[in-house]
Amino acid sequence: MLRYVLSRLLSAIPTLFLIITISFFLMRVAPGGPFDLERPLEAKVMENLNKIYNLDKPLWEQYLIYLKSVLSGDFGPSFFFRDFSINELFAQSLPISMQLGLSALALALAVGGFLGVIAALRQNKGVDYSVMAVATLGVTIPNFVVAPILTLILGVHYGWLPVGGWGGGAFVNMVLPVVTLALPQIAVVARLTRGSMIEALRSNHVRTARAYGLSGYTVVVVHALRGAILPVVSYLGPAAAALLTGSVVIETIFGIPGIGRYFVQGALNRDYTLVMGTVVVVACFVIIFNLIVDLLYAMLDPRVRFD
Amino acid sequence: MSKINENTVLEIDNLKVDFETNTGMVHAVKGVNIHVDSGETVAIVGESGSGKSQTMMAAMGLLAGNGITHGEVRYRGNNILGSSIRKLNKIRGAKVTMIFQEPMTSLDPLYTIERQLCEPMVEHGEYTWATAKKRAVELLELVGIPEPARKVKAYPYEMSGGQRQRVMIAMALANDPDILIADEPTTALDVTTQAQILELMADLQKRLGMAVVFITHDLGIVERISDRVYVMKSGEVVEEGNTKEIFGNPQHDYTKMLLDAEPTGSKAVVPDSNPIVLDAKDVRVEFETETGFLKPNHVLRAVNDISMEVREGQTLGIVGESGSGKSTLGRAVLQLLPTAGGRVVYLGNDITGATKKKMQPLRKEMQLIFQDPFGSLSPRMTVGQIITEGLLVHEPQLSAKERDQRAIQALEEVSMDPAMRNRYPHEFSGGQRQRIAIARTMILNPKLVVLDEPTSALDRTVQKQVVELLRNLQKEHGLTYLFISHDLAVVRAMSDTVMVMQKGEVVEKGLAEEIFSSPKEDYTKELLAAAALKQHKPGNQIF
Fold it and tell me: Where do the TM regions start and end (chain A) (predicted)?
């Protein structure tokens, strides 16, 4: 088990290396630089800036310098937020985004899973149809529509919840962004759970469980749901990545100081180090989540073994 | 109304089962009366679709969601049909238990054997988890699983099909039931395993004294184990009575047909002057099992130095249980799998390891028919398209009209209505699909046909028809068959020579007549005993 985890983490190193290399050079291929403003800077100032940020050196040397600093855990200074290093920016914003994303993921799993199971148990009845209709709506309506509507109703009209701001992660501040972020994922999880649950309920071993007079809970949860949850577990990896990147819109609408806004600002301002930093962070998350998914999968299904 | 006596444990009274489908009501069971007395073995016999399984499923409240029931099912006088799940659950798993046809999937893959054995014991309140665990080990010992204390911790995927079926039997016995309902419990198993499971069930019944309801399509089993028989056909019981009476003096035509359904006859001898079509020497096939980094390569030898010689018009029957390498051998001979050694000569041409290009013209003459009539026809093509697809490759000069003409001929040859060539495979039964598969082969006028379990997925009566069809085609066209099967009755009816395989090796080889009448090797004897073939009636030759 431990060996498996270690080997997986080791095999992530070449992956990360490739990602860094490709995105480093892709960034440089794109025209424009971090200091190209509408009104060009004086040549002397430009020269000094380039010198400070090592932009005057040949590309391969810059690449090596960057690799070296990343290896020592330093993502370098931000080109745009002049007085901050990337590490400082992330230290503030990453925990907020993670809290937001993980809360949304947990909510999506709990609510989506529950709805999916209920729909499967009442297959082709009213409850099933309404859950599936809501799920379809959840996927199709974009969150920049849902967010203002929820804000208007719950925040402005009733005044129950704050319309924006993070408030240091206070519960009331989290409700609206987390719910908005989770809605499409709830829909996907509900659909996935319903589908695999229907299949599981029809399977032979569930028939055995019923034939042996086991209680409804044992049949549905112990025997059907454990197998049915496997496809949902596989979906967790991509879902986590989607929640992390999908928070861009949510963070902007609700004015949350998370990592999301750096995606946009970094890209627009050619802030090389900021973009690279976000790429590496997101890649790490995807890799770690996929590892967690595989471990979870093995925990649920004894047929999957690590050796 | 059937006679009620005190001994009657289960009584099914005028049971009707309907299924609501998109295309209207399907009446699966139409007023069936069955009663089971304590301690007796009752067999319910019928072909697939006769409603025999649905009758028992309905009685146990296990129908699919769209099933509707009428009538009464009384357990010791109390109606349980349509009663609440709570009430049903007091009986099922405790007083009435079931074994299913699919040993591979009837156990939950995610839990240990121990957990699954204990669950019903604890659920029905007779045991605590601790006592149930002890009993689980005892039960495994009872059903003959070696090392029960260790095996009880195993997961189903770590066991063979036969062992899983034993576990199911253990589960069925856990709460000392009055009735054990066995729904085709041996159909998915190899013959020798089948015999062991049947023996085990008979032995346990003798010792524990419960009644057994045996649902099956296999009359050989019925004759061996049951006291009374119900014969079912399209949702109705057409005949019932003592096993001896039914087998000795069947009244209903359908029963007679079922009894007569074992393929009979044998093949006429082919003259030695016929040319040798297939000459294989020391054929060897190896598979590398999954290898990992720094792990030694493990080579599995699926076929180990097997030789054969088949003359034109002959049939070589290749017999063996699953995993014996018989299908692999068939494929290797056709060069569909790479061989690791040996030589294959087809009509004087050495085709060992021939390139795809070199094999291409020969493919027309060397055809293959598969076991699964459901999976081997493309669901999105019409029967006509399926049959003529080979012509597009091998006789591209034909016009669409000529191809259609050939399709009509081919369908007529397999006794199907040519008008059906515009339909899709899902509209046909298993037997019809196998005929379509045969037509697809015959349209190319092959010389050598490898038949890989072509009748295994079919009902006995349909099997008999397909066997006859294959024999007639062989006679008319002088075909050479490699007939791969685990079904000895069918092999006997088809083959000139027989080769018995086990674990990739030939156990015994010889003329069919000799192998079946005086087998030399123990394994062959075991196979024959397990299959319990009827004695050959002399003078029954078809050819």
Answer: 12-30, 100-121, 133-158, 170-190, 211-233, 239-260, 272-300
Both A42 and A180 in one domain: the answer is no
- Chain-chain contact of A214 with B123 (C-beta, under 8 angstroms): yes
A167 domain residue, yes or no = yes
Share above pLDDT 70 across residues of chain A, in percent, rounded to a whole number: 98
> A255 and A129 share a domain?
yes
Q: Which of B100, B119, B290 to mutate to test the interface with A (most CBs of A within 10 A)?
A: B119
Q: Do A141 and A286 reside in the same domain of the chain?
A: yes
In a shared domain, residues A53 and A97: no
**Cβ proximity of B499 and B295 under 8 Å:** no
pLDDT at B535: 47
Model confidence over A59-75: pLDDT tens digits? 888 899 888 988 888 88
Instruction: Judge whether residue B294 has pLDDT over 70.
Output: no
Q: Which residues contact B284 (CB under 8 A, 6 or more apart)?
A: B301, B303, B304, B305, B306, B339, B340, B341, B342
* Residues A63 and A126 both lie in one domain: no
Last residue of a domain, one of A39, A72, A105: A72
Q: In terms of domains, do A186 and A122 share one?
A: yes
- Report yes or no on A85 lying in a domain: no
At A136, the pLDDT band (50, 70, 90 cuts) reads confident
β-bridge pairing B448-452 and B480-485: parallel
Please check whether residue A223 touches B, CB under 8 A. Answer: yes
B65 close contact with A: CB closer than 8 A: yes
A142 and A1 belong to one structural domain: no
Phi, psi angle pair for B438, to nearest 5°? -70, -40
Structural domain that includes position A58: 1-72
Contact A214 B108 (CB under 8 A): no
Would you call B109 and A226 a contact, using CB atoms and an 8 Å cutoff?
A: no
* CA dist., res. B356 & res. B335, Å (int): 9
Neighboring chain B residues of A202 at a CB cutoff of 8 Å: 64
8 Å CB contact of A218 and B119? yes
pTM: 0.80
What per-residue confidence (pLDDT) applies to B269?
77
Dist. CA B286–CA B337, nearest whole Å: 10
Same domain, A57 and A203: no
Query: CB-side exposure of B313: number of CA atoms within 13 Å?
Result: 14
Q: How many CA atoms lie within 13 A of B307 on its CB side?
A: 3
Contact A212 B119 (CB under 8 A): yes
List CB contacts (< 8 A) between B168 and chain A.
208
- Residue A114 maps to which CATH number? 1.10.3720.10
* Cα A69 to chain centroid, rounded: 26
Of A205, A218, A223, the CB nearest to B105: A205
In the predicted structure, residue B242 carries a pLDDT above the cut 90: yes
Shortest Cα–Cα distance, A209 to chain B (Å) = 8
- Rounded Cα–Cα distance for residues B497 and B537 (Å): 19
Q: What percent of chain B has pLDDT over 70?
A: 95
Tell me the pLDDT of chain A averaged across its residues.
87
Is B108–A218 a contact, with Cβ atoms under 8 angstroms apart? no
Q: Is A150 within a domain?
A: yes
Rounded to an integer, what distance in angstroms lies between the CA atom of residue B80 and that of residue B53?
A: 18
- ipTM given for this complex: 0.79
Asked, for residue A82, whether it belongs to a domain, the answer is no
pLDDT at B267 over 80: no
Contact A211 B93 (CB under 8 A): yes
Write out chain B residues lying below 8 Å of A208, CB-based: 98, 100, 106-108, 168, 171
pLDDT higher than 90, residue B271:
no
Facing A303 at nearest CB: one of B106, B109, B124: B109
In 3D space, the residue among B36, B8, B1 whose CA is nearest the CA of residue B181 turns out to be B36
Q: What's the structural domain count of chain A?
A: 2
Residue A52's pLDDT band, with cuts at 50, 70 and 90, is: confident
Q: Does B103 touch chain A (CB under 8 A)?
A: no
